Amino acid sequence: MANTLAMQLYSLRNYEGGWDAAFDAVKSLGIDTIEAWCGAVPNDPAAKTSVDSMRASLDRAGMKLTCGHMTVAEFDARYDEWKRFLLDYGSRDWVIPFAKAETLDEWLAMLPRFREMGEVLAADGLSIGYHNHHMELVKHGEKHVMEHLLDNMPELKAQFHIGQFLPDRGISLPDWIRRYEGRVCSIHVNDSTGSGPARVGKGDCRAVESIRAALDTGVTTFIVEVDLTERSYDQVKADVETTRELIG
After folding, report:
1. 3-state class of 73 per DSSP?
2. Level-2 CATH architecture, domain 4-247
């Protein structure tokens, strides 16, 4: 199966000229696939973008979808609308982008809800995944939050965000990717240092090793999450080209 190189919709939120202009810029980078983000498609018809208008923008640009950042709240509020949106444009993964908890007990208390969601999604041809930010890389006992979630729910897929795996967190993302082989639905590609974002492969998060580990374990979807604007276009292009060269 060919590898997919995609762009996260969140990365386009500040692009000048709106979604159509942003999608044109993404196409000029040689990318025809977007990861949807529910925050960019509010249900309020008076808001900036609705699901219908996002469909129209995707159609005009000839874009496909992969994965999709969809919250638990959106699952409860308008599951059928999101399900159709994802499936109609080629996505097969509903990835929870974040949850909020302070203690390990609070994190683990979310798993019964995730399991319920997973059963509904599976019946409709979708899988359930979870995306890490920094809070999922906090350690509770012998494991980090992300490990607790994945180890206690085998059907939960992982979407790892490279730029959060800074050295001071003491985690080897390449090792995690290998440990959860077969359960990583996609990788969010970016890089960082202790001072902030860095070009892919130029930071401290072992981005190149992580991408290679992902390829070695059968991951086929790589989603660039680097803010794209007219000013940052050349920098993002460099990240896209680096990633494309790595994934083939």
Report:
1. helix
2. Alpha-Beta Barrel (3.20)
